[in-house]
Input
Amino acid sequence: DSAGRLWVGTNSGVAIHESTGWRILTQADGLLGDMVNVILEDRIGGIWLGSYIAPRGGISYLKNDIWQYYTIENGLPHNNITSLIETSDGYLWAGCGLNDRGGAVRFSFDGENWEIDRSLNKNDGLAGEKVRSLFEDLGIIWFGSEYDGLALSDGHAWRTLTLEDGLSDLEIKAIKQDSDGNIWLGTRNGITRINQNALKLLYDQFENIP
Output
């Protein structure tokens, strides 16, 4: 994180390595669940810890030693948290779900707290209900699904990619970009690389792309 600490998510809590050595955070210390699947530090120094142990999972948020929690009771589509990103427009997104259930939620910061202000499912444009992975490039958010391919959105228009578009599989586990601008998709059946020429054709379908 920005303070130089290493956070490691495990099935038995989160391990934090700092100047004094290791310490462990578990449910006894404030986590919603001990299985920590994803970790993100936001721009104000808060730590997001996503669990993957529905029904008692969700997001534990730690800032200045104060905990906040996000679950299905206050807006999450599902308590299994798969992915977290903070986007260039200042929002924070969480992907969640299990099998054919789930979705994505957007958090906005009002100067004091993060609150869910938008929730997406397949009817809104996602390729499938469960969001397995999240990524942003040039203001376009990529939503990888569990069974149904990939959906891209600029906040207005949507585009879905499937096997017919060149994906090696419909389960998109991870999305990364290399130093040359190519985007790599880790799937259940190998890796798909989308080069810059293909990205340009893809992005030409959206307006206001830099």
Q: What stands out?
A: The longest strand covers residues 101-109. Residues 196-203 form the longest helix (8 residues).
